[in-house]
């Protein structure tokens, strides 16, 4: 027998990303936007695609896109780097700053892909637990950074799946400790527009803010995300990325989408209203829930969570079952949908909890 080729040991130990892609009427499990981007945007995109020189490679530096991002978010274009979804952006950061023999500190429970992508690059993942209300204690975090000198400190605000928003003061304390240890702080702001606080306009040489078009721009299918960082960090990401990684279709889509910012803000406002509706309904039910700064809400039914998840599914409502995740025993996460979808969720949950109370 010839030996079967073996993947690297740390890869063999990994499992992939498992979020159910199930066909259900009401899909509230992956924090996507419930509505399509504007038709006028799609028309403009399609028209531009027709006249694009497809025999040519895309602009390697994505200049038009970076300049559009720079205008929209009021940051210099040299501080912007775009990738195929924020996950690719995070991968580039970890390839450049983490990798074998290096470490990434994260605060659990948080977005599972942070650990996953860090481990794929061969980095060692160090963890601190959040408090029972899912906050990061900044002074504990600062001490941990001083003691362990991680190469990367990973924050997520608003945090997925808890919805927790870090305060500016708490981020300042963490950034200061990281700066003293030579650590790069990465702040995943996938839900930044839903929140009251962002670090995007507050640049610092050792801070990277990561954003995505997947949620607020209604473009999860586009696969576009970007980092805002010091030019030296951008150069390091550029060095590890594949040439021409961002297709012409993606660059054009992102550039044109930014022309529809007013529509984006309307969608965000509607989703924040929906979030308030869901939180008010949960407050009346026999569940624990955590106030969210994003387009989803984490809650914990008193009854067995997986059974409730199944009950919701039998009513055609798919939410995320986080109940087996570390630190999230008994928890489910619902994405804010359209007003009709939110009502269907509230009705189904009321039924599942056993009461037309
Ligand atoms: C949804 C999400 C993303 C988005 O990743 P993309 O690759 O841009 O689709 C990134 N970070 C967090 C915390 C998320 O919840």
Give your account of this protein's structure.
This protein is of the alpha/beta class. The chain is 39% helix and 16% strand. It is built from twelve helices and 13 strands. The strands form three sheets. It has a seven-stranded mixed beta sheet, sandwiched between helices. It has a four-stranded antiparallel beta sheet with strand order 9-10-13-12, with helices on one face.
Termini separation comes to: 66 Å
**Helix and strand sequence:** HEHHEHEHEHEHEEEHHHEEHEEEH
The total of beta strands comes to 13
Q: Cofactors and ligands present?
A: pyridoxal-5'-phosphate
What are the segments in which pLDDT stays under 50 over at least 5 consecutive residues? Answer: none
Describe the SSE topology.
Elements: H1 9-12, E1 26-27, H2 39-50, H3 63-73, E2 80-83, H4 85-97, E3 103-108, H5 112-120, E4 124-129, H6 138-148, E5 152-156, H7 168-181, E6 184-188, E7 207-212, E8 225-228, H8 231-240, H9 248-257, H10 261-283, E9 287-290, E10 296-301, H11 305-314, E11 317-318, E12 320-321, E13 332-335, H12 339-352
Parallel strand pairs: 1-11, 3-4, 3-5, 5-6, 6-7
Antiparallel strand pairs: 2-8, 7-8, 9-10, 10-13, 12-13
Helix pairs in contact: 2-9, 3-9, 4-5, 4-8, 6-7, 10-12
Bound molecules: pyridoxal-5'-phosphate (PLP).
């Amino acid at each position: 027998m010839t030996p079967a080729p073996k993947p690297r040991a740390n890869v063999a130990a990994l499992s992939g990303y498992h979020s159910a892609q199930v066909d259900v009427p009401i899909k509230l499990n992956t924090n996507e936007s419930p509505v399509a981007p504007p038709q006028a945007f799609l028309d403009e995109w399609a028209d531009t695609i027709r006249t694009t020189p497809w025999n040519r490679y895309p602009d390697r530096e994505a200049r038009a896109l970076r300049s559009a991002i720079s205008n929209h978010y009021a940051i210099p274009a040299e501080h912007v780097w775009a990738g195929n979804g924020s996950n690719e952006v995070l991968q580039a950061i970890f390839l450049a700053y983490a990798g074998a023999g290096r470490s990434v500190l994260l605060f659990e429970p948080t977005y599972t892909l942070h650990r996953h992508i860090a481990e794929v690059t061969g980095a060692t993942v160090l963890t601190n637990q959040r408090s029972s209300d899912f906050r990061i204690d900044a002074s504990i975090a600062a001490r941990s950074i001083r003691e362990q000198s991680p190469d990367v400190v990973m924050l997520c605000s608003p945090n997925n799946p808890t919805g927790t928003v870090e305060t500016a003061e708490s981020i300042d304390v963490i950034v200061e400790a990281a700066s003293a240890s030579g650590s790069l702080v990465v702040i995943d702001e996938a839900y930044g527009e839903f929140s009251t606080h962002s670090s995007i306009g507050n640049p610092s040489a050792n801070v990277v803010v990561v954003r995505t078009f997947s949620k607020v721009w209604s473009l999860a299918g586009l696969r576009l995300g970007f980092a805002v960082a010091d030019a030296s960090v951008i150069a390091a990401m550029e060095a590890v990325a594949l040439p021409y990684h961002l297709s012409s279709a993606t660059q054009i889509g992102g550039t044109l989408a930014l022309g529809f910012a007013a529509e984006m803000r309307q969608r965000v406002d509607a989703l924040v209203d929906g979030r308030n509706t869901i939180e008010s309904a949960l407050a009346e039910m026999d569940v624990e829930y955590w106030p969210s700064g994003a387009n989803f809400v984490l809650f914990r039914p008193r009854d067995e969570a997986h059974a409730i998840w199944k009950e919701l599914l039998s009513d055609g409502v798919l939410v995320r079952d986080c109940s087996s995740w570390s630190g999230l025993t008994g928890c489910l996460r619902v994405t804010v949908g359209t007003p009709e979808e939110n009502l269907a969720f509230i009705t189904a949950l009321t039924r599942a909890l056993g009461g037309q109370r």
